[in-house]
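Final report, results section. Input specification for complex C-07:
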Amino acid sequence: MSPHPSLAKAAGRGTPVRIANGSAFWGDSQEAPLELLRGGLLDYLTLDYLAEITMSILQKLKARDPRAGYAHDFLGVIKRGARDIVERGVKVVTNAGGMNPVGCCDAVAAVLQAAGYGGRMKIGVVTGDDIMPQLDAMLERGLSFTNIDTGELLSTIRPRVQSANVYFGAFPIAEALSGGADIVITGRCNDAALALGPMVHEFGWMADDWDRISAGTIAGHVIECGAQCTGGNCQADWESIPDFARIGYPIIEAESDGSFVITKHTGTGGRVDVPGVTEQLLYEIGDPKNYITPDGIADFTTIQLKQQGLDRVHFSGIKGRAATDSYKVSISYSAGFKAVGTLAYSWPDAYKKARAADKILRQRLDRLGLKLDAIHSEFVGVNACHGEMSGEPANDIAEVVLRIGARSMEKAPVERFLKEIVPIALNGPPSVTGLNAGRSKVDEIIAYWPALIPKTAVTAQVEVVSV
Amino acid sequence: MKIQLRQIAHARSGDKGDDVNIGLIALTPQDYAVLVREVTASRVKKHFAEICRGEVERYELPNLYALNFVLHHALDGGGLVSLRMDNQGKTYSAALLRMEINVP
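Structure output:
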């Protein structure tokens, strides 16, 4: 049953396909996926768990335990939502597979069987994105994996590479759905593909139907950051946004012609309006005429938006162009170590004391002659976010936090740096607290290396297994 | 008359490697014309002089009454490397809204 049959009928179209996103990253709301499943009608639930850094974390987990290496938060969604997913036939599409989609599939199957749903479900698994095992052979064959931001060759950092994954598009997901999958688990793939895949499957869009592919990509882009398109992080009149505490996560109502509506379940908090949706459209984009994904090139300057009643924004007119012949590759590599410590100074003269402490610390670090590549100080409450453009604080400012960080290719100097921070509470300027440096630890820096690979050099593998 | 951008626009920013993009959206179609005229790439570069080490590019989206700015080398090496509290440039959008412009 369509939630808005009159609208669909009036436009002379079929029932829209309702595709929601309940996770913007690994660590997003644990409740949102359940609330989406239970709060109203849904055809697909997508869940995005992978950020730039996530793959290298998952790689480390897998190195320790070959069954690990996926976003295990997803198991909680399956455990708590199994009944809704199975009984109501909501299909789930997720990149929770991370570095180990097969391991994730096995774990999901075990959860479903334990819940008594064995024999009723099929899981589709997309693999082939992890090219780490073939990386050296590929380099030997002449693939350079040049950094698309800096132009440097991968050979300059090859020994420090920790993971290398291709961003696949929507078609492997659509293939899994066509194969009968109720749940699709991928490794690294384009975020928007999680929503575009179901549209390709439902509407039978062809790979070269560039306008519709681009429309579906833009729909996926709008919901990929979860509640950031339903009122979250919205600067347009944010104080008037209702009921943040029960904010609804986004739902696409997709039509076969490529038009769609962004909305949320009735009765939830937040707001879906043109200003908020526009903010999210512009989030993390470059040239708006050339938004490149594995599936095509979307042109954001063709989007026509219209408020279509309360909490409904209608998209139409989207044009796109042919896909490029390469996939993007996300490579992570070890790039040294860093640590950050903080010291909170209270009134009176809070800013003066914090600046004095910074100066003293730097003099001590100088005397130690540590091999630090960078030291960075900020004054939280004064200028940490916006730097000099914040201007001078009031003379009687209540408190200021000195936040000081250091970076080095070696671990030892950063460890030594941290040890220098806490003592200044007793041997420096007065009225200081908040010594988190005592608990701070040195973090390995995992840096991100974006590159391209010809599409002919890799193939996605799709397998559908019965649970 | 001098006004602050926040009076006629809202914005959102995010990171990609060492770059930050800021989407700047006019509150009305009339305000969009003011943004196009006043908020040039070079003015944005100057506004972020302390933070942005590279070039600033500007793209126009008249259909959304919006401009998109890409600030290159604006994150101290990128979100994962940076020592800044705002290592992903999340508050750069608000920083842009501080800019003062002339309106008739």
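DSSP finds 13 helices and 19 strands in chain A. The domain at 334-449 of chain A is CATH 3.30.70.1710 (Alpha-Beta Plaits). This concludes the modelling results for the funded period.
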